[in-house]
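Changelog note: in this version the structure field was regenerated for every chain. One regenerated record is shown below for reference.
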Amino acid sequence: MAFPEIPQPHWLQAHKQENRGPVLLVVLSVITLQFLIPKSLAIPHHKVFCFVEALMLVLIVLIAPKKLGLPHVPQRTLTLVLNAFMMLSNTSSAILLVEKIVDGSITSPAKLLWSGFSIWLSNIVIFSLWYWDFDRGGPAQRAGAKDAIPDFLFPQMTDPGYAEPGWYPRYPDYLYVSVTNASAFSPTDAMPLTRWAKLLMSIQSITSLILVGLVVARAVNILR
């Protein structure tokens, strides 16, 4: 007796690759924030570092302008390297900021709040890119429905009634996950399922908690 085929979930079906314009825009925003960070909170030669990041961003588009929606090993490798560069720069700035908060060398509330917000915002974008780049093998793998095991469980995956026709997770969904995780210090939208996703979200929450707590406390102390 033949059994009827069970249709695949809507989010697991192959689909056209999403527009990467928003991703390129937020990466450019992070590079700009890192370029404007005060020199005392930046890694040595940070402007050269930002130039290298911008160059990699240009190369990502140029090496395969017609394959942004297809698996492309050089492009994906360069994308991961760029995100690692941005994370290294932002983490260094966060460490320097914490050191200066602890030793009391920052006396300007405006400089403190701007630097803290800049690093915190960059942290949100960088982690959102990690989530977007690794969930089910990345955007190209998701578009081709190559991996059926999700790393993040979005509400639309649990009940098709919550999803519009043809829904699948796009970059703004991962950005929202990163925003809520950095502000609520816990997942509020998508639940992490795999160990790497839980680890990354834990690191982001702890980093954000330390950063926000110290910046706010120091700012209040200065204003007093």
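Spot check on this record: The chain has one domain: 18-37+46-223. The helical segments are 21-36, 46-62, 73-103, 109-134, 139-143, 155-158, 171-184, 195-223.
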